[in-house]
Write a structure and sequence with these properties.
Blueprint (H helix, E strand, L loop, with lengths): L2 E6 L4 H11 L7 E7 L3 E7 L2 H7 L9 E7 L14 E2 L5 E9 L2 H10 L9 H16 L3 H11 L2 E9 L6 E6 L4 E4 L4 E4 L11 E4 L4 E6 L2 E6 L10 E2 L15 H7 L1 H9 L3 E2 L4 E2 L8 H6 L2 E6 L1 H18 L3 E5 H4 L10 E7 L5 H12 L3 E6 L5 H5 L2 E4 L12 H21 L4 H12 L1 H9 L2 H11 L4 E6 L3 H16 L2 E6 L16 E5 L6 H12 L4 E7 L11 E5 L7 H19 L18
């Protein structure tokens, strides 16, 4: 969950590295550091933001055409100067940056301590660079071979970059379970956790595979696997625009990404739906159409916001495709002994495509013979390369740590998949698909209308910015929307919030309702409307403050609720795509009013690549 940047070439390394760290700061922001070579190997690091590191080195000579940097989300060792990366070997001739966890670092550290090694941090990363140094000293192997031997001895996940004072024309990069991409230039190479620091300089990239080690020199690149076999890299072209990585005039990336949702939902559907024909085309699933006709069950595995999207998918797939669906936390699924057969389809959802628990769940399901589909936003990520087939969301880069457009894009893809599976299995009439797809095609414009409610939602946010607790309630496919609304509020404003099925309120949470408790209802006109109205009355009877998301023109709920947010009329299947928008804006404005760091909330990182 840390950010890695490396450079070797003809330019000054530091400006490239520091700009790259800013682009990757969403991956971790409790400390940062750089290592540069200019006549000698230098390390500068500091607890805090990347900007704190910049202030720390503002009067330092930062020359050199080879360098690397790291922005950290702490796992081993509290955030501090000493635990910041890069870490050096005992002889100070090697430096390393690392994303991941070395699980057997404790045993290795004990052995190295017995041999006289002295450690200056609490991290697992420092243990790895000392192990490489020890192998060099004892065996006389060169650095390249020492790294390979060391990586064969460690257990866990890693993306690493290593520099050497004795070989200053070399960067070594390796990965297992954590992402790493290499940018290919003319007389220069770039290394990063994702493509965002690279796109400014080159469109040509190589995504390292697990158990691969790359040796980079200014005019040469060699990739081997951990068994020392030379690999032929596949160079692909990035489809990423630089302006997608900027705020574009918005105060925060999160707000920009909320406002991008009409476009991202449209891009997600483009070329995939043909409303007039009642047809859904998903090219990524084409080879598995026969499989879809014969599956017994679908299991959706995901974490966080992606899990909430999966819950919406469960409602849609069961309703329209008539296939049983189970939605599992990937982190729990992998530690059970789940019953999976060859007639099961597993759908893995991850914005980054690198979520460690979801990756592990995929491997478990593959071992048991299931077919695996992926839903992912990042081209070239691990999940699309590991799954049998899948669908990209095409939401574009999401920099804000709290997912917004990623959620609605995932829900859009799941909606398409529900109709596609229904189509393949003959579970839905063509005339009905024409009707549903026509409505779906209108959703981007309806999202635009929801965004026009921003000022009204901002006024409501002012009334509740000092709350300490909040309940979010919904029924049917609006229950996952309630969960997502609660998650957004607690992620970025630090207000304790819970999402519940509305009917479950009286089985416990109703005890919390008093004059200080705001309760947000998704109360749109659908099959559960009458029941939700009753739940609102129960809250009002106990003096709770009701904020209701209702269908435009609603008068019944409006007469009861303290605050009403009206969203356009749409089919019940598509309510989650509209009802989510006001909840995102509500959380955003409350967080801003409370002075919170909206894009980089405390303790969180965008891509959870460690267990």
């Amino acid at each position: 969950m840390c950010g890695i940047v490396g450079y070797i070439g003809f330019r000054d390394a530091y400006p490239i590295v520091i700009k790259g760290l800013h682009r990757l700061e969403y991956r971790g922001y409790d400390s940062a550091g750089v290592s540069l070579f200019d006549k000698e190997l230098k390390v500068y690091k500091k607890a805090g933001k990347v900007s704190d590191l910049e202030d720390f080195v503002k009067d330092v000579d930062l020359g050199g055409t080879i360098g690397m940097g790291h922005t950290r989300w702490a796992t081993h060792g509290v955030p501090s100067d000493r635990n910041s990366h890069p870490h050096a070997s005992g002889n100070r001739k090697l430096t390393i940056i690392h994303n991941g966890i070395i699980e057997n670092y404790g045993n290795i550290k004990e052995t190295l301590l017995s041999k006289g090694h002295v450690f200056t941090s609490d991290t697992d990363t420092e243990v790895l660079i000392h192990l490489i140094e020890e192998i060099q000293d004892v065996t006389g192997l060169d650095l390249q071979e020492s790294v390979r031997v060391a990586l064969n001895r460690v257990v866990g996940a890693y993306a690493i970059v290593i520099m050497s004072e004795d070989d200053p024309d070399l960067l070594i990069a390796a990965r297992k379970g954590s992402p790493l991409v290499i940018g290919v230039g003319k007389g220069e190479y770039f290394v990063a956790s994702d493509a965002t620091p690279i796109v400014e300089y080159t469109k040509n990239v190589i995504y390292l595979n697990d158990n691969e080690i790359a040796y980079l020199r200014r005019e040469d690149l060699l990739i081997k696997n951990i068994d020392n076999t030379v690999q032929t890299p596949y160079i692909q072209e990035l489809d990423l625009k630089l302006d997608a990585l900027e705020k574009g005039g918005f105060d925060h990336f999160m707000l920009k990404e909320i406002y991008e949702q009409p476009r991202s939902i449209r891009d997600c559907m483009r070329g995939r739906i043909y409303p007039e024909k009642g047809l859904v085309k998903l090219g990524g699933l084409k080879e598995y159409t026969e499989k879809l006709k014969n599956i017994d069950r679908i299991i959706i595995v995901a974490c966080g916001t992606s899990w909430h999207a999966g819950l919406v998918g469960e409602y849609l797939i069961e309703e329209y495709a008539r296939v049983p669906v189970e939605v599992e936390y990937a982190s729990e699924f992998r530690y059970r002994n789940p019953i999976i057969t060859e007639k099961d389809l597993v759908i893995a959802i991850s914005q980054s495509g690198e979520t460690a628990d979801t990756m592990a769940a995929i491997e478990l399901a593959k071992e048991k013979g299931a077919t695996i589909f992926g839903i992912c936003n990042v081209v070239g990520a691990s999940i699309p390369r590991t799954t049998h087939a899948g669908v990209y969301t095409h939401a574009g880069p999401e920099i804000g740590v709290a997912s917004t457009k990623a959620f609605t894009a995932q829900v859009t893809v799941l909606t398409l998949m529900a109709f596609y599976i229904a189509q393949q299995r003959g579970a839905i009439k063509e005339s009905k698909l024409v009707e549903y797809l026509t409505e779906l095609d209108e959703i981007p414009e309806l999202v635009e209308q929801c965004l026009k409610l921003n000022d009204h939602i901002k006024d409501i946010a002012w009334e509740f910015k000092d709350s300490t607790n909040c309940l979010f309630l919904g029924r049917g496919s609006s229950f996952p929307v309630a969960l997502e609304g609660a998650l957004k509020l607690k992620e970025i404003s630090y207000i304790h919030a819970e999402g519940y099925p509305a009917a479950e309120m009286k089985h416990g949470p109703i005890a919390l309702i008093d004059n200080d408790m705001p309760v947000v209802f998704i109360a749109t006109k659908d099959s559960s409307y009458g029941k939700v109205v009753s739940n609102i009355q129960e809250v009002k009877a106990r003096k709770g403050h009701v904020i209701a998301i209702v269908t435009e023109g609603d008068t019944e709920v409006k007469s009861m609720a303290d605050y009403v947010i009206e969203i356009p009329q749409t089919g019940e299947a598509f309510v989650p795509l509209l009802a989510t928008i006001p909840l995102q804006l509500l959380a955003y404005h409350i967080a801003v009013m409370r002075g919170c760091n909206v894009d980089q909330p405390r303790n969180l990182a965008k891509s959870v690549t460690v267990e």
